[in-house]
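--- STAGE predict ---
source: upstream dedup step, 1 unique chain passed
mode: sequence only
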Amino acid sequence: MDIGQLKEYILSYNLNSCPLGNQGYNRVLIQLMGFLGHGKSSLINSCKYALHNQVFKTHAESGSADGGLTVVRNAYPLTHTITMVDNRGCAVLNPLETGEFYAQLGNFVPLNERVEWTKEFTDMLNLLEDSDVEPNFTDIIVPIFVYSVKREIAANEVEEIKTFLKACRDLTGIFPIIVLTHKTSGPFFKFRDLFEGMGAEEIFSVENYTSEDNLKTLGRHLQFLNLILKVLLNVNFRMSEERNPRKERAERKKFLAKYFHERETQK
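--- STAGE serialize ---
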Protein backbone atom coordinates (compact mmCIF):
# COMPACT_ATOMS: atom_id res chain seq x y z
CA MET A 1 0.00 0.00 0.00
CA ASP A 2 1.16 3.54 -0.69
CA ILE A 3 0.93 6.17 2.04
CA GLY A 4 -2.55 7.31 1.00
CA GLN A 5 -3.90 3.74 1.03
CA LEU A 6 -2.26 3.08 4.40
CA LYS A 7 -3.91 6.11 5.96
CA GLU A 8 -7.29 5.26 4.47
CA TYR A 9 -7.11 1.67 5.73
CA ILE A 10 -6.20 2.77 9.26
CA LEU A 11 -8.69 5.64 9.45
CA SER A 12 -11.58 3.50 8.19
CA TYR A 13 -10.70 0.37 10.19
CA ASN A 14 -13.69 -1.07 12.05
CA LEU A 15 -13.95 -4.25 14.10
CA ASN A 16 -17.39 -4.89 12.62
CA SER A 17 -15.67 -5.75 9.32
CA CYS A 18 -13.75 -8.68 10.85
CA PRO A 19 -14.74 -12.08 9.38
CA LEU A 20 -16.80 -13.00 12.46
CA GLY A 21 -17.89 -9.46 13.30
CA ASN A 22 -16.72 -7.59 16.39
CA GLN A 23 -17.56 -10.51 18.76
CA GLY A 24 -18.22 -8.06 21.60
CA TYR A 25 -15.14 -5.86 21.13
CA ASN A 26 -15.50 -2.20 20.23
CA ARG A 27 -11.95 -0.82 20.44
CA VAL A 28 -8.37 -1.71 19.57
CA LEU A 29 -6.22 -0.70 22.55
CA ILE A 30 -2.54 -0.31 21.68
CA GLN A 31 -0.77 -0.54 25.03
CA LEU A 32 2.74 0.92 25.26
CA MET A 33 4.99 -0.67 27.87
CA GLY A 34 8.61 0.01 28.76
CA PHE A 35 11.18 1.71 30.94
CA LEU A 36 11.03 5.34 31.98
CA GLY A 37 12.16 7.82 29.36
CA HIS A 38 12.47 5.41 26.43
CA GLY A 39 10.10 7.26 24.10
CA LYS A 40 6.59 5.90 24.69
CA SER A 41 5.00 9.35 24.80
CA SER A 42 6.99 10.55 21.79
CA LEU A 43 5.88 7.47 19.86
CA ILE A 44 2.24 8.45 20.41
CA ASN A 45 2.92 12.00 19.22
CA SER A 46 4.67 10.60 16.13
CA CYS A 47 1.86 8.19 15.25
CA LYS A 48 -0.77 10.92 15.52
CA TYR A 49 1.38 13.24 13.41
CA ALA A 50 1.94 10.65 10.68
CA LEU A 51 -1.70 9.56 10.57
CA HIS A 52 -3.42 12.93 10.62
CA ASN A 53 -0.81 14.95 8.70
CA GLN A 54 -1.42 17.94 10.94
CA VAL A 55 0.95 20.50 12.43
CA PHE A 56 3.10 18.66 14.96
CA LYS A 57 1.61 18.78 18.46
CA THR A 58 2.79 17.40 21.78
CA HIS A 59 -0.24 15.35 22.82
CA ALA A 60 1.67 13.13 25.24
CA GLU A 61 4.33 14.87 27.32
CA SER A 62 7.70 13.14 27.03
CA GLY A 63 10.49 13.06 29.59
CA SER A 64 14.25 12.78 29.52
CA ALA A 65 16.13 9.59 28.72
CA ASP A 66 16.70 8.93 32.40
CA GLY A 67 13.43 10.16 33.78
CA GLY A 68 10.03 9.93 32.13
CA LEU A 69 6.98 11.98 32.99
CA THR A 70 4.03 9.63 32.71
CA VAL A 71 2.38 8.69 36.01
CA VAL A 72 -1.16 8.68 34.60
CA ARG A 73 -2.36 5.88 32.33
CA ASN A 74 -3.31 8.26 29.53
CA ALA A 75 -5.35 7.23 26.51
CA TYR A 76 -4.92 8.95 23.12
CA PRO A 77 -7.45 8.08 20.37
CA LEU A 78 -6.02 7.69 16.88
CA THR A 79 -9.40 6.95 15.29
CA HIS A 80 -12.89 6.07 16.51
CA THR A 81 -11.72 2.44 16.79
CA ILE A 82 -8.02 2.68 17.68
CA THR A 83 -6.58 4.14 20.89
CA MET A 84 -2.98 4.26 22.10
CA VAL A 85 -2.28 4.05 25.83
CA ASP A 86 0.77 5.61 27.46
CA ASN A 87 1.19 3.32 30.46
CA ARG A 88 3.31 4.33 33.41
CA GLY A 89 6.87 3.14 32.84
CA CYS A 90 9.18 1.39 35.26
CA ALA A 91 12.73 2.00 36.46
CA VAL A 92 13.56 -1.71 36.77
CA LEU A 93 11.68 -4.91 35.98
CA ASN A 94 11.47 -6.07 39.58
CA PRO A 95 8.46 -8.11 40.81
CA LEU A 96 6.71 -4.99 42.15
CA GLU A 97 6.84 -2.94 38.96
CA THR A 98 6.31 -5.95 36.70
CA GLY A 99 3.08 -6.71 38.55
CA GLU A 100 1.95 -3.13 38.02
CA PHE A 101 2.71 -3.48 34.31
CA TYR A 102 0.53 -6.58 34.11
CA ALA A 103 -2.31 -4.79 35.92
CA GLN A 104 -2.18 -1.95 33.39
CA LEU A 105 -1.86 -4.29 30.43
CA GLY A 106 -4.77 -6.41 31.63
CA ASN A 107 -7.00 -3.30 31.79
CA PHE A 108 -7.46 -3.53 35.56
CA VAL A 109 -6.21 0.02 36.07
CA PRO A 110 -8.59 2.78 34.89
CA LEU A 111 -7.60 4.88 31.91
CA ASN A 112 -6.74 8.55 32.42
CA GLU A 113 -6.13 8.13 36.14
CA ARG A 114 -2.96 8.31 38.19
CA VAL A 115 -1.14 4.98 38.58
CA GLU A 116 0.15 4.31 42.09
CA TRP A 117 2.65 1.50 42.63
CA THR A 118 1.03 -0.80 45.19
CA LYS A 119 3.24 -2.97 47.37
CA GLU A 120 0.73 -4.77 49.57
CA PHE A 121 -0.84 -8.06 48.49
CA THR A 122 -4.27 -7.08 49.84
CA ASP A 123 -4.17 -3.79 47.94
CA MET A 124 -3.51 -5.61 44.68
CA LEU A 125 -6.38 -8.01 45.32
CA ASN A 126 -8.61 -5.03 46.11
CA LEU A 127 -7.55 -3.49 42.80
CA LEU A 128 -8.75 -6.59 40.95
CA GLU A 129 -12.03 -6.68 42.87
CA ASP A 130 -12.68 -2.96 42.38
CA SER A 131 -12.18 -3.37 38.64
CA ASP A 132 -15.24 -5.65 38.59
CA VAL A 133 -17.52 -2.74 39.46
CA GLU A 134 -17.22 -1.47 35.88
CA PRO A 135 -15.33 -4.28 34.11
CA ASN A 136 -13.61 -3.44 30.85
CA PHE A 137 -13.76 -6.43 28.52
CA THR A 138 -14.58 -4.72 25.20
CA ASP A 139 -10.99 -3.74 24.30
CA ILE A 140 -8.87 -6.05 22.21
CA ILE A 141 -5.37 -5.41 23.54
CA VAL A 142 -2.19 -5.20 21.47
CA PRO A 143 1.03 -4.77 23.50
CA ILE A 144 4.01 -2.76 22.27
CA PHE A 145 7.31 -2.81 24.15
CA VAL A 146 9.33 0.38 23.63
CA TYR A 147 13.09 0.34 24.16
CA SER A 148 15.70 3.01 23.41
CA VAL A 149 18.89 1.81 21.75
CA LYS A 150 20.70 4.54 23.69
CA ARG A 151 20.34 2.43 26.85
CA GLU A 152 22.47 -0.69 27.23
CA ILE A 153 20.72 -3.89 28.35
CA ALA A 154 22.48 -5.40 31.34
CA ALA A 155 23.13 -9.15 31.19
CA ASN A 156 20.75 -9.84 34.08
CA GLU A 157 17.97 -7.84 32.37
CA VAL A 158 17.83 -10.01 29.25
CA GLU A 159 16.11 -12.92 30.99
CA GLU A 160 13.83 -10.54 32.91
CA ILE A 161 12.67 -8.84 29.70
CA LYS A 162 12.25 -12.20 27.95
CA THR A 163 10.04 -13.47 30.80
CA PHE A 164 8.07 -10.24 30.76
CA LEU A 165 7.44 -10.37 27.01
CA LYS A 166 6.22 -13.96 27.22
CA ALA A 167 3.85 -13.02 30.04
CA CYS A 168 2.47 -10.16 27.94
CA ARG A 169 1.83 -12.68 25.17
CA ASP A 170 0.04 -15.00 27.60
CA LEU A 171 -2.10 -12.11 28.91
CA THR A 172 -3.16 -10.78 25.51
CA GLY A 173 -2.68 -13.59 23.00
CA ILE A 174 -0.30 -11.36 20.99
CA PHE A 175 3.48 -11.29 21.35
CA PRO A 176 4.50 -7.67 22.02
CA ILE A 177 5.64 -5.71 19.00
CA ILE A 178 9.09 -4.30 19.76
CA VAL A 179 9.74 -0.65 18.92
CA LEU A 180 13.38 0.41 19.16
CA THR A 181 13.58 4.19 19.49
CA HIS A 182 16.48 6.61 18.85
CA LYS A 183 17.57 4.27 16.07
CA THR A 184 20.32 6.59 14.83
CA SER A 185 21.86 7.01 18.30
CA GLY A 186 22.89 3.46 19.14
CA PRO A 187 23.73 -0.04 17.85
CA PHE A 188 20.33 -0.89 16.40
CA PHE A 189 21.37 -4.26 14.90
CA LYS A 190 22.74 -5.43 18.25
CA PHE A 191 19.39 -4.73 19.93
CA ARG A 192 17.43 -6.28 17.07
CA ASP A 193 19.40 -9.51 17.51
CA LEU A 194 18.91 -9.40 21.29
CA PHE A 195 15.15 -9.06 21.02
CA GLU A 196 14.93 -11.72 18.32
CA GLY A 197 16.71 -14.00 20.77
CA MET A 198 13.99 -13.20 23.30
CA GLY A 199 11.35 -14.46 20.87
CA ALA A 200 10.26 -11.15 19.33
CA GLU A 201 8.28 -11.65 16.13
CA GLU A 202 8.00 -8.03 14.95
CA ILE A 203 10.70 -5.38 15.51
CA PHE A 204 10.44 -1.77 14.33
CA SER A 205 13.17 0.84 14.54
CA VAL A 206 12.07 4.48 14.63
CA GLU A 207 13.32 7.98 15.16
CA ASN A 208 10.41 9.76 16.83
CA TYR A 209 9.27 13.17 15.69
CA THR A 210 9.83 15.84 18.34
CA SER A 211 9.09 19.54 18.79
CA GLU A 212 12.68 20.22 17.73
CA ASP A 213 12.77 17.76 14.81
CA ASN A 214 9.44 17.34 13.03
CA LEU A 215 10.26 17.83 9.36
CA LYS A 216 7.98 15.40 7.52
CA THR A 217 9.62 12.79 5.34
CA LEU A 218 8.00 9.89 3.51
CA GLY A 219 10.24 7.26 5.08
CA ARG A 220 9.67 8.51 8.60
CA HIS A 221 5.89 8.75 8.18
CA LEU A 222 5.83 5.22 6.79
CA GLN A 223 7.62 3.88 9.89
CA PHE A 224 4.73 4.88 12.11
CA LEU A 225 1.92 4.03 9.68
CA ASN A 226 3.37 0.56 9.09
CA LEU A 227 3.57 0.06 12.85
CA ILE A 228 -0.16 0.81 13.20
CA LEU A 229 -0.87 -1.46 10.22
CA LYS A 230 1.03 -4.30 11.90
CA VAL A 231 -1.12 -3.81 15.01
CA LEU A 232 -4.28 -4.16 12.92
CA LEU A 233 -2.98 -7.24 11.11
CA ASN A 234 -2.44 -8.86 14.52
CA VAL A 235 -6.00 -7.93 15.48
CA ASN A 236 -7.36 -9.39 12.21
CA PHE A 237 -5.51 -12.63 12.89
CA ARG A 238 -6.89 -12.87 16.44
CA MET A 239 -10.39 -11.99 15.28
CA SER A 240 -10.40 -14.67 12.58
CA GLU A 241 -11.31 -17.18 15.30
CA GLU A 242 -14.16 -17.20 17.80
CA ARG A 243 -13.43 -15.03 20.86
CA ASN A 244 -15.17 -14.50 24.18
CA PRO A 245 -14.13 -11.13 25.66
CA ARG A 246 -15.70 -11.79 29.07
CA LYS A 247 -13.94 -15.13 29.42
CA GLU A 248 -10.62 -13.66 28.25
CA ARG A 249 -10.88 -10.91 30.88
CA ALA A 250 -11.56 -13.56 33.53
CA GLU A 251 -8.42 -15.43 32.43
CA ARG A 252 -6.36 -12.23 32.72
CA LYS A 253 -7.71 -11.75 36.23
CA LYS A 254 -6.70 -15.29 37.19
CA PHE A 255 -3.21 -14.67 35.77
CA LEU A 256 -2.80 -11.55 37.90
CA ALA A 257 -4.16 -13.10 41.08
CA LYS A 258 -1.72 -16.01 40.67
CA TYR A 259 1.18 -13.62 39.99
CA PHE A 260 0.41 -11.47 43.05
CA HIS A 261 0.07 -14.55 45.24
CA GLU A 262 3.42 -15.96 44.07
CA ARG A 263 5.06 -12.56 44.54
CA GLU A 264 3.77 -12.44 48.12
CA THR A 265 4.99 -15.91 49.00
CA GLN A 266 8.48 -15.18 47.64
CA LYS A 267 9.06 -12.11 49.83
